[in-house]
Specification:
This protein has 503 residues and is of the alpha/beta class. It is built from 16 helices and 22 strands. It folds into two domains: 10-252 and 455-472, Aldehyde Dehydrogenase, Chain A, domain 1, CATH 3.40.605; 256-446, Aldehyde Dehydrogenase, Chain A, domain 2 (3-Layer(aba) Sandwich), CATH 3.40.309. The radius of gyration is 26 Å and the shape is globular.
Length: 503
């Protein structure tokens, strides 16, 4: 059994790590040190097609297994994850992504429950028996897998977001091929070792750039896809799938608003907002990226948020720091551009707004709070994906909701309030797939995750996440075969010339 080596240009198929046959490679860089931590292959089209063939063969046998047996295999995967320990995997994740070590361990700790949830969910429902439309007829439908599914995984949660869709796909009876982010492929690749608990060939992992993903999506032998990432890439994925008439789940990011009303519990709202804005250096698709704060609590809120932001330690995620680097130099440049643009347009830097002077290496940026922000600034209209909290002062709850909805995105939205009317009105009125009230960015394996508008199509997690990877087949069984009165030939009196007396 070959052990994973971050510099061996590994790919994973047939339950084993293999050195890629591709001559092209991608260097993986530690964003805290700018030093290489690994190297992966940019897989060729021939390599991709070979793995698709292997996955197709494996899926044929997997589909024939009963739901209880498939569930047992998925529980074995969960057991392997739980027994492996998280320290080494978390260290690797921190090195290639930059996230603080506690957040890497937190991600890994949430993975096994996903497999256990879907192991049992797939046993719970296999179809439905509705009321019959005629007597002595059994009418029903069942779920069937699509076949081979493609999973394009983002950089920010390289293991957990792999699990979200792969577990559901396997539970539904599919085989899965994972294409990790070229920024954080090592954690996803290493995670593949847990799939050795499954029959050979069911889960594969191929590294590469966008062309690798396109080869997977455009193959006539792949059958469904899941993507998490930016809107523009999401459009390309959806286009490729549409050309194949292939179903896809697209989670395309957002620009989530946070509303702090005059009835907000400030002792909760301030640290909750700090976490929503700065967790993972703001590199969370559901991070709060624009704040609408009622004028009655604005100054108190800003003061509290600034105090927390200034207290957060910035540095290498393997040291005692809450704020690690941005995942790439390009990511930091985008944050810089949006903050500098806001300042040029009249915003005030309450804290942060710069590269930490003590960090000559790495792609760090200080937690930043901006005030005097207007709704038309680019820092509020674009997805920043960095540790920035731009604050707009508003005069009413209704004004805040209107501004929150003034966007092409609709992934999530958050509110802090103790007023029941505001809570219910926020849930009903905010144009987003998820609304958090007094508890931002939390998720639940049993609750569907996904957005409205340009933030995506379809859902991950919950029953909807399972159904995304299976299709229905209707069945009709007449248990007492009878000639139906509407079958050919028609009696003469039904025809127009005879008066049309059918009904």
């Amino acid at each position: 059994m070959t052990e994973f080596d971050p510099f061996a240009r590994h790919v994973f198929y047939d339950n084993e790590f293999h050195a890629s046959q591709s001559g092209d490679s991608i260097e993986v860089i530690d964003p805290a040190t700018e030093e290489p931590v690994g190297e992966v292959a940019d897989c060729s089209a021939d390599e991709v097609e070979s793995v698709i063939d292997r996955a197709t063969d494996a899926q044929t046998a997997w589909e024939r297994l009963d739901a209880k047996t498939r569930a047992s295999f998925l529980h074995d995967v969960a057991g392997s994850i739980e027994s492996s320990g998280f320290d080494d995997a978390a260290e690797l994740m921190t090195k290639e992504h930059g996230k603080p070590f506690p957040e890497a361990e937190g991600e890994l700790a949430n993975v096994a429950p996903v497999f256990r949830y879907y192991a049992e969910m797939a046993r719970d429902e296999a179809g439905r028996i509705p009321g019959s439309t005629q007597s002595e007829s059994f009418q029903f439908y069942r779920y069937f897998p699509y076949g081979v599914t493609v999973h394009i995984v983002p950089s920010n949660f390289p293991v957990l977001l792999t699990a979200w869709t792969v577990a559901a796909s396997l539970a539904a009876g599919n085989a899965a091929i994972v294409k990790p982010s070229e920024l954080t492929p090592l954690s996803t690749l290493r995670f593949m070792e847990h799939f050795r608990e499954l029959p050979s060939g069911l889960v594969s992992c191929l590294t590469g750039r966008g062309e690798t993903a396109q080869t997977l999506l455009r193959s006539p032998d792949t059958d469904a896809a899941a993507f998490t990432g930016g809107v523009e890439t999401g459009r390309k994925v959806n286009t490729a799938c549409a050309e194949q008439l292939m179903p896809a789940v697209i989670e395309a990011g957002g620009n989530d608003p946070m509303i702090v009303t005059e009835h907000a519990p400030m002792d909760v709202a301030v640290p909750g907002s700090a976490t929503a804005a700065f967790h993972l250096s703001g590199q969370v698709c559901t991070a709060s990226e624009r704040f609408y704060v009622h004028e009655a609590v604005h100054d108190e809120f800003v003061e509290g948020l600034v105090d927390i932001a200034r207290s957060l330690r910035v540095g290498n995620g393997l040291a005692d720091n809450e704020i690690g680097p941005l995942v790439s130099e390009a990511a930091r440049k985008k944050v810089q551009r949006l903050v500098d643009g806001a300042v040029e347009d009249g915003a005030t830097v309450a804290c942060g707004g710069r590269i930490p002077p003590e960090h000559d290496d790495g792609w760090f940026y200080e937690p930043t709070v901006l005030t005097d922000v207007t709704p038309d600034m680019a820092v509020t209209t674009e997805e920043t994906f960095g540790p920035v909290a731009p604050i707009c002062e508003v005069s009413s709850f209704e004004k805040a909701v209107g501004l929150a909805n003034r966007t092409e995105y609709g992934l999530g939205a958050s509110v802090f309030t103790t007023d029941l009317r505001e809570s219910m009105a926020a849930y009903e009125s905010l144009e987003a797939g998820m609304v958090w009230i007094n508890n931002p960015i939390i998720d639940n394996d049993a609750v569907p995750f996904g957005g409205w508008k340009r933030s995506g199509i379809g859902r991950e997690l919950g029953r909807e996440g399972l159904n995304a990877f299976r299709r229905t087949k209707m069945g009709v069984l007449d248990w007492n075969p009878t000639v139906q009165e509407w079958w050919y030939p028609y009696p003469d009196e039904w025809f127009y010339t005879s008066g049309g007396e059918r009904f």
